[in-house]
UniProtKB/TrEMBL annotation:
Organism: Paenibacillus vini
Gene: aroF2
Signal peptide region: none
Name of the protein described by the UniProt record: 3-deoxy-7-phosphoheptulonate synthase
Keyword Transferase: yes
Full protein: residues contained: 71 to 334 of 347
Domain DAHP synthetase I/KDSA: 12-257
Length: 264
């Protein structure tokens, strides 16, 4: 079902007046984690003002260690839904377990599967019937074939609205957190009809690389971007402050993107 051989036309995922995969560039921006109502409200206003269409933020965080901040949970879903509604943005949030799919689908417009859960097949099956579009992140050691097979689980479950997200893979390089695999963008677009989103934040792990790798992703043909932005990155509640743009950098980047590709 994911293959272009059996579905030659691009899949366009329409949510409200935002079309993902239809030729317009879609920008999803926001913090790694929802921290408080004030934090997500302020960031939502900045994403909207900069021209973004989707507010990102994790209420459930897949942390490497069990003692790290794990997210604010269901309350975070409520905070983000309110901020999205108030500022006219769609919302995307990560769901980590099948049990939480229904509540995440109730509050968010798009459900995100994180890199660590790309092959959580019970979760993927459950997302097949969730009724909401899914952004599936590539596992950090997954081949294109494994990635497309993971998407296949969601599609086979009855959900045609899947977007693929390149978020960097693990290589021998340690200067960057991950290596953003730009080739994934044209390769996945040729093998599949699903929209391809790039995540230059997790793909590099370094704030100063987000701008050039965002532009490179657009040049490579990405259908959209998911970018971390925080009003106070140095004091953010996850370690991802180091890769989060300041609001003025985010706004400047989107102004530059307007020159490369029309924003929705
Ligand atoms: C995130 O988007 O904050 C995240 C945890 O991403 P990934 O699953 O790509 O690490
Ligand atoms: Mn993050």
């Amino acid at each position: 079902l994911a293959s272009r051989d059996f579905h030659p036309e691009n899949t366009v995922i329409s949510i409200g007046d935002v079309n993902i995969g239809g030729g317009d560039l879609v920008v999803m921006g926001g913090p790694c984690a929802v921290e408080s109502p004030e934090q997500i409200d302020e960031i939502a206003s900045l994403v909207k003002a900069a021209g973004g269409q989707v507010l990102r933020g994790g209420a459930f965080k897949p942390r490497t260690g069990p003692y790290s901040f794990q997210g604010v949970g269901v309350e975070g879903l409520v905070m983000m839904a309110e901020a999205g509604k108030k500022h006219g943005l769609l919302t995307i949030t990560e769901v980590m377990t099948p049990e939480y799919v229904d509540v995440c689908a109730e509050y968010a417009d798009i459900l995100q599967v994180g890199t660590r859960n790309m092959q959580n097949f019970d979760l993927l099956r459950k997302l097949g019937t969730c009724g909401k579009p899914v952004l599936l992140k590539r596992g950090f050691s997954a081949t294109y074939d494994e990635f497309l097979n993971a998407a296949e689980y969601i599609l086979a479950g009855g959900n045609p609205n899947v977007m693929l997200c390149e978020r960097g893979i693990r290589t021998f390089e340690t200067y960057t957190r991950n290596t953003l695999d730009l080739s994934a963008i044209p390769v996945l677009q040729s093998l599949s009809h699903l929209p391809v989103i790039s995540d230059p934040s997790h793909g590099t792990g370094r704030r100063e690389l987000v701008e050039p790798m965002t532009k490179a992703s657009v040049a490579a043909g990405a259908d959209g971007l998911i970018i971390e932005m925080h009003t106070d990155p140095d004091n953010s509640m996850t370690g991802d402050g180091v890769q989060s743009l300041f609001p003025d950098q985010f706004a400047a980047l989107l102004r530059d993107l307007e020159k490369l590709a029309p924003l929705v």
